[in-house]
Amino acid sequence: MADWRLRRAGEGDAPALSLVAGASFLETFAGILAGPDIVTHCAAKSSTAAFAAWLADDRCALTLAETNAGHAPIGYAVVTPPDLPVDTDDRDLELRRIYALSRFHGGGLGAALMADAIEGARERGAERLLLGVYGGNTRAHRFYERQGFTIIGTRRFLVGATWHDDFIYGRSL
Where does the source fall among the domains of life (predicted)? Predict the structure, then answer.
């Protein structure tokens, strides 16, 4: 049995989401991206205010993964209207974020977060789920491809002061 649970994030969860977002981004990209860029990116994109804005927007769905014991945040997913440089319509949603702390990799948490995001997108009437991923994150590429996503485009993505090449993936629902 898993030692974690998923639940829909609510208004009071912005601090927990911000904490796990910053920690998981740092864990994922330390030694790959420049440290100052990681700090700048997390301060802007993973702030409590950023998560509070998503939580206040009824077009967005946020899922929080927590440990069963103590309910510590260990992962999360964010589904929003798309903001990607590919053709989209009102039947598309974007998996804007999906992260888990590395200690919990390999135990089904990522797949559970993905299944929850897909189900939530379907419930919102989406027919396609999109996402962007850093071109050098081969672990993430493999994960998304196992989940049925295929590359449909590219983009340049700013982290701190540095531009990076990303791939855009899509999956029919």
Answer: Bacteria
